[in-house]
Amino acid sequence: MTSPADGRSMPVHLLTSFTNTNGGSENRALALHARLRHRGEALLWSDVAPASGFSGQSIRSLHPYRGEFPHGGTLVIIGAHTRIGPWIASAALHRTIVVANLHPLSILKHLEMLDEYGIHSPEIVYASSALRDEIGLPGRVEASPIDLNHFAPAGGAAARPFSVGRLSRDQTYKHHPDDPALYEMLVESECGVRIMGGTSMSGWLHPDPRIELLAEGEQPAREFLSGLDCFFYRTADNYFEPSGRVVFEAMACGLPVVCGTRGGYAEHLRHGENGFLVDSQEEAYDTIMGLQRDAAMRAEIGRAARLTVEGIYGLLYEEELAGYYLGDR
User: Fold this and answer.
1) pLDDT tens figures, 291-307
2) What does R_g of the chain's alpha carbons equal in angstroms?
3) Could you tell me which CATH class the domain 12-143+313-326 is placed in?
4) Which CATH class, in words, describes the domain spanning 163-312?
């Protein structure tokens, strides 16, 4: 970013709470940093002491009373859980951007807090059009960056039963209460079921060795996805998934995805073309069983899914991303 007054380069400060190596806000901050640091000055900040899993990253901790906080340039606040204090009024910022990727009420409260500290009209980047519509304030819609070279289709067919799975944060609201019954139906129909981030569901399921519940982050996401034939994702009715980055990662791996209709990812899915959107338990079961029976359909939907994310995350996306945050607009 360049100061309009003197032409000097100005930094972009990426601020979030680096508490969970599997967190969406944390990974979004790291992905943005990877794309911006080679084009300009990009700095990572955490409002708390970063978790040990981030020790390899150059993350600065906020210490406002020692004067250690972002100064000048652009501040990008990622996630409404990130704590802001009076220091922001002294930061002499040229721009303030709020990345809205959580529950609408949390985002609105965060904007109110910024207003109290003198940041009256921050720019807003939404995780999906649906989230922007829910909040009702203008802003840019931007998919969370993923690495298409890392998340890529696996080569060759695996000699194993048809496998259905998903990954997410290991929290109950990330799962629909009907999911356990669906998984039990699937294993009775000779499907394998693997859920990473599913240990929070252990009390909902009858013990069954055919349903594998892994802890959040137990395997690298790419490795886990390479062992699936179908990716399934839906959340509790009282939780709206603002984006669903994991859905795009699965699509990038060439997997057919079967998803609930409530989520930001839904605006990129065309039912029966590049994935499936389901409203009921019966639809979910019938769709997955159709994929189990039809390998050609799985391959066709998987190819279309990969092409979809290539369209989302192509060269234009990368150029627009750098231009927006670095100010080359």
Assistant:
1) 999 999 999 999 999 99
2) 21
3) alpha beta
4) alpha beta
